[in-house]
Amino acid sequence: MSNNTANMKVVEGSYAIAHAVMCCRPDVISAYPITPQTHIVENLSQMVANGELDSEFLTVDSEFSALSVLVGVCAAGGRGYSSTTSQGLALMYEVLYNVSGLRMPLVMNVANRAMGAPLNIWNDQQDSIGARDVGWIQIYAENVQEAVDATLQAYKIAEDRDIRTPVMVCMDGFVLTHVYEPVELLDKEKAREFLPDFKPEHILDPARPMTFGAFADPSTYTEFRYQQFEAQLKALPKIEEVARQFEESFGRYYGGLIDGYFLDDAEIVIVTLGSVVGTVKDAIDAMRSEGKKVGLLKIRSYRPFPVQALRKALKDAAVIAVMEKDVAIGGEAGLVTDLKAAFYSSSIRTPIIGFAAGLGGRDITIKDIRKIVEKAEAARKGDLSEFEFLALRKEIL
Amino acid sequence: MVIKAGSLVDPCSTRITKTGAWRTFVPVFDHEKCIKCSLCEIYCPEGCIHQEEGLFIPDLDYCKGCSVCANECPRMAITMVLEEK
Amino acid sequence: MDNSLLAPGHRACAGCAMPTTIRLVLDAAGPNTIVVSPTGCLEVTTTPFPESAWCVPWLHSLFENQSAVASGVEVMLKRRGKDTNVVIIGGDGSTFDIGMGSNSGMFERGHKILYVCYDNEAYMNTGVQRSGSTPFCVHTTTTPSGSQSQGNPRPKKDMPAIALAHKVPYVATASVAYPVDLRRKVKRALEINGPSYLQVNAPCITGWTFDAGTMIELARLAVESGLWPLLEYENGKLVGVKKIRRPKPVEEYLKLQGRYKHLFKKTECADMLSQIKDMAEDNMARYGLVD
């Protein structure tokens, strides 16, 4: 972390994000209100109203339209921004594929929230993990500062000529959007140096009347998809590079694709993402003091999935325990299946156990994490458990 | 052909496809009867009838033989004829 | 030489009214125009990768987001100080039904966008299924005529009235058979500082089933029978009505089309026919179509 505390302020997470977005200078912000994203866009509209931010703010009829507006903005050469969560992200689903397929470098903060039914406004990550295959880059933030910094980095990654892929900056709803904590707000001028103006190669222009979004038949569709696949692979080193450039400019770095905590000698590694990382670190501190060699691997980039980085970082672990706030009903869950797939096509045969936790805003406690470690210890002795729901209240079933 | 990311395409490029191959009947113009009202040109779905040196001529590279021109000609100066191929 | 802004070589059916409609619209709008189109016959027949029939900048995103996408384009152009026409051209399925939410948003936000609906009165691209625009008694593949059915049981949705209810300052209907009227309306719409809606009757040879050569004749009959009045509203007021010089009986229009064939075969359809006649007469009286 930087020692420069001049810009350090205790603010609400949503304000910090709005401030970061202001520093990214979007031409157009288009958003539809949904809890817990609302404070982000309310702050942005106030900034526009106060003349602090020179952007057009469009109040639209739905999340579907919010993202669709940005398709037009981007095609006309503008930088676009939106933010949403949960049902809103689901309503955008069709547009998500379209934005990535049209190679539009938009950035969106997702204030992660559970999906209904039953209706639930609290945090988990079912919404964005469920959209893992839509062709967007997904970066998960542990705290408000990371979400702020990732928002600026996201535009630099997205708009890179070799990448041209939209980015979701995922941050846990309420936990990060509504928390007041000390944050170093971005310096506008430094942000401008870091992120130059958006200058796309092709825009809608009568002087050069290109057709955008022609339909592709079976003879070319595969290649369009491959181009997106390739761009995500190219994004792996780019995300790392941009994180390092950010460190040079702003003095903060949290790992590019992944980050670790007591990872080097860890025998049991908990793999997770988002704000629960803080709780896991506390649990690890406690268990380390008891002599347990437990470590943490934090996923920062879930898409592209950092297969090589994960293999390298986890090759010496005895057991890997994946804890995530989503479930692929009828299967297991997103992260654990991705990790298993990444390892099965290598020579690594470390046991991997998976847990759904913190669904619909339920707290994940240190006790829960100890439970995971117990299961991992059992797995180490050969007693491998199947995917399970952590802290399931069997008494009310 | 190299694909451009985002399915980007150059303008007016369907010209390379000669839809005249779809045609069964071909319009034959009687220029003597023509009063130059240009309705054939306006209504042609292909936009392939143009005036050349004062005469309305269908571009048979694209004419699909729909016969809208023949139907709309107020002087019945256009006849659809089965095309020998 | 050809200076059309829609190139030949597109894949529309022989005798389709859509490309003629589009050429007339583009002809009136000129090259300083950006077009946004939803999914549909238009998109599929004019942009088979790596080709495009469009000679103006053109953008396709989805079936139901054309109005939102065009709003984004318009906002960006304004921001950059560019005076370029933004025109949406879409079919009735995306206009009347699936795109209604984003259409309503665009109308209500007051973007300076001309929305042109080429109305062929059903989902033609997917194989002639009923849309909200399909008229009463029309046989489609999802409202087929049969022993228990006389075709579409509901009248056509009044989309111009929906646009008017949004206080859209320019709303008009037009027909592919009346090119001078159509071009004039496009030009007028583009002068309006706000949204405009133009609904153009565009017969579909596949869905309506008629002899290809009669496409324009049919569109003209729709107007002359009183079933497709050519109207023009400015700021909510009816300012233009195209008078019918030679009114035609509705049967003359209906009989040329396969989609109404059952009405003339089944005796129990007599009542349906008289209801369609009533619709035409109602239009004649309401708008003073005949002097």
How would you characterize the overall build of this protein?
- With 397 residues, chain A is an alpha/beta fold.
- Chain A folds into two domains: 8-250, Thiamin diphosphate (ThDP)-binding fold, Pyr/PP domains (Rossmann fold), CATH 3.40.50.970; 258-396, 3-Layer(aba) Sandwich (Rossmann fold).
- Chain A is built from 13 helices and 16 strands.
- Chain A has a seven-stranded mixed sheet, with helices on both faces. In chain A, strands 10-12-11-14-15-16 form a six-stranded mixed sheet, sandwiched between helices.
- The model of chain A has no long low-confidence stretch (mean pLDDT 97).
- Chain B is an alpha+beta fold and 85 residues long.
- Chain B has one domain (18-82): Alpha-Beta Plaits (2-Layer Sandwich), CATH 3.30.70.20.
- Chain B has helices at 39-43, 68-72; strands spanning 8-9, 25-29, 49-52, 55-58, 78-82.
- Chain B is elongated.
- Chain C has a single domain, classed as 3-Layer(aba) Sandwich (Rossmann fold).
- Chain C contains eleven helices and ten strands.
- Chain C has an eight-stranded mixed sheet, with helices on both faces. Chain C has a two-stranded antiparallel sheet with strand order 5-6.
- In chain C, helix 3 (66-79) packs parallel to helix 5 (100-109).
- The longest helix of chain C is centred in the last third of the chain and has 18 residues, at 270-287.
- Chains in contact: A-B, A-C, B-C.
- Chains A and C meet through strand 3, helix 3, helix 5 and strand 9 of A and strand 1, strand 2, helix 3 and helix 5 of C.
- Strand 9 of chain A pairs antiparallel with strand 1 (8-9) of chain B.
Instruction: Note poorly predicted spans of chain A.
Output: none
SS element count, helices of chain A: 13
| Overall 3D shape of chain B | elongated
CATH architecture of chain B: 2-Layer Sandwich
The average pLDDT score of chain A comes to: 97
- The total number of structural domains of chain A is 2
Straight-line N-to-C gap of chain A: 46 Å
Largest interface: A-C, 42 and 44 residues
* Number of structural units classed as domains of chain B: 1
Tally of strands of chain A: 16
Task: Please indicate the percent range of residues of chain B in DSSP E strands (runs of 2 or more).
Answer: 15-25%
Oligomer: heterotrimer
Q: What is the assigned CATH homologous superfamily of the largest domain in chain A?
A: Thiamin diphosphate (ThDP)-binding fold, Pyr/PP domains
CATH third-level topology of chain B: Alpha-Beta Plaits
Instruction: Please report the total strand number of chain B as a whole number.
Output: 5
Task: Summarize the helix and strand pattern of chain A as letters.
Answer: EHEHEHEHHEHEHEEHEHEEHEEHEHEHE
Widest sheet of chain B: strand order?
2-5
Structural class of chain B: alpha+beta
Helix content of chain B: 10-25%
The chain-level mean pLDDT of chain B equals: 96
